[in-house]
Amino acid sequence: MSTHPIVTQVTERIRARSQDLRAAYLAQIAQMRQRDRGSDRMGCANVAHAVAGVPGNDKLRIVAERAPNIGVVTAYNDMLSAHAPFQHYPDLIKHEARRLGATAQVAGGVPAMCDGVTQGTPGMELSLFSRDVIAMGTAVALTHDMFDAALMLGVCDKIVPGLLIGALQFGHLPMVFVPAGPMPSGLSNSAKAKVREQAAQGLVGRDGLMKAEMAAYHDQGTCTFYGTANSNQMLLEAMGLHVPGTAFIQPGDSMREALTREAVRTVLGKAAAQPFDVPAIGEVVDERCIVNAMVALLATGGSTNHLIHWVAVARAAGILIDWNDFSELSDVVPLLTRVYPNGSADVNEFQAAGGPGFVIGELLGAGLMHADVLTVRAGGIAEYANIPHMRGEPSAEGVLHWESAAPSKNEAVARPAANPFSATGGLKLLQGNLGRSVIKVSSVPDDRHVVEAPARVFDSQGELQKAFAAGELDRDVVCVVRWQGPQANGMPELHKLTPPLSVLQGKGFKVALVTDGRMSGASGKVPAAIHVSPEAAAGGPLAKVRDGDLIRLDAVAGTLAVLVPEAEWATRTADTMSAEQRLADGHGLGRELFAGMRRNARAAEEGACTWL
């Protein structure tokens, strides 16, 4: 199957746009790969420090035998259910490396915060910037410069993009990403959402809400909805940076150990029957690889957060993408899955239906992904259309084998490209006199794709929640929440607004959210124009909106506009953030330390990067 002409067109446009930046990046990789190994290149004192803490046999292998040394960067902590399983991975990795005549060292750890813990709290204002902190932490770890390859241990929202941005600064090394899998299914996501809506109306008390939440989030592993964390895993599969089919195997599954050992074999080039010269990560992540990730995101109705994160990831590899690229791809990429919030199934049901392997196989078969890309495996991206199975003990070689993920085992969850849920992808670009923004339409009912209603302007999500509780929003309304962009307060997710807005929509009102902030990767059925750029704090048009202005959000036409006479709009003065609000948004719980990041942050469409 030849590649779809729009996929080719977008890829070629990205390649041309990125030509100079990408060439400089590849030249840097080539220069780094020409150097001697770390233990040969560095001074004796440097090497002695690097191996002082490892067992004697490992010292011999690294220094005298010149064996490959794998650096491990881990996002382990036991605050995050998704990262708690990583506690014992380093010992497993070291054991497998020694079996293969290599060594492994934990190069460093990176912070990993849970948005589920910080949603609606001041701590959420550090969430987006934690991605760049993680990238810097990854760079600090690998800067020891003693490694021949690396394994990245991370799963959740900002952690994987941060690890990937940091890893790409060391683009001369082979690298494999190692996930931990989703938690077993508990209370269904739709049932949990219903209890949240009832709590927002005062129909369920704290005890009832706590019981529901504890039943939903109940074990180690990622949350089971298809939010940013699980979208991360889908994209890494589509980029060929995992062991194939690794994403959604649960932490307690015996195959998990085998797949982690396979990651060691993969990064050393010993996973296939014949030795494989594993390409450097900077060579794997090229324009075609980035487009494959974008297509996979659209085909699965994935997280809107990746319209920020993957812009930053691409930039780290010398590649420039923008929201126009996503929008053009979305016009031709069909929606192949229904996973909550785009449906009732969770990621465990998605995996049972065929998971990422099924989706990748369908996209390759339809010519919607580039087949001629490098991956960390000898078989290329075609291997990622398979699903792993296990025979024997996890520590035995040859224990894993792969079978085709097709056909779908449940077409209510995953459909073939010839019979999609929708002919177009789940994300849309909106443009108009309020700026540029994006909307996730895959979970929004068709009759809600166009909303026209008077604006109610809020300076914080807390103000909106108070207005809802007071009954002030029981009408058709477009809620404008401003001062939520990267420069204002770090661009927190506003997922706590989902229950009240869902209640209003459930009452039959036409409701929409317009904001320069983010929604959760689990944003659902309420139409939301998010990431509005330029943001209000940077002088963007949202700062000119007033209560009562008529706003039209049209996801069909791709427009977002305030319906104010042009002459009046041109002369209207923009509001500015009050000194009190800037003080409140920038102080307490460590937020003072991120003032420089707020000052330097690029716009959402530029990845909200703080390092450019």
From TrEMBL:
InterPro entries, alphabetized: 6-phosphgluc_deHydtase (IPR004786), Dihydro-acid_dehy_C (IPR042096), DiOHA_6PGluconate_deHydtase_CS (IPR020558), ILV_EDD_C (IPR056740), ILV_EDD_N (IPR000581), IlvD/EDD_N (IPR037237)
E.C. code: 4.2.1.12
Enzyme class: lyase
Binding site for [4Fe-4S] cluster: C156, C223
Cofactor note: Binds 1 [4Fe-4S] cluster.
One example of a Gene Ontology biological process annotation: Entner-Doudoroff pathway through 6-phosphogluconate
The keyword Lyase belongs to this UniProt entry's keyword annotation: yes
UniProt KW keywords: 4Fe-4S, Carbohydrate metabolism, Gluconate utilization, Iron, Iron-sulfur, Lyase, Metal-binding
The keyword Nucleotidyltransferase appears for this protein: no
Residues annotated as domain Dihydroxy-acid/6-phosphogluconate dehydratase C-terminal: 413-608
Metabolic or biological pathway: Carbohydrate metabolism; Entner-Doudoroff pathway
HAMAP family the record matches: Edd
The protein's name in its UniProt record: Phosphogluconate dehydratase
Organism listed in the record: Xenophilus arseniciresistens
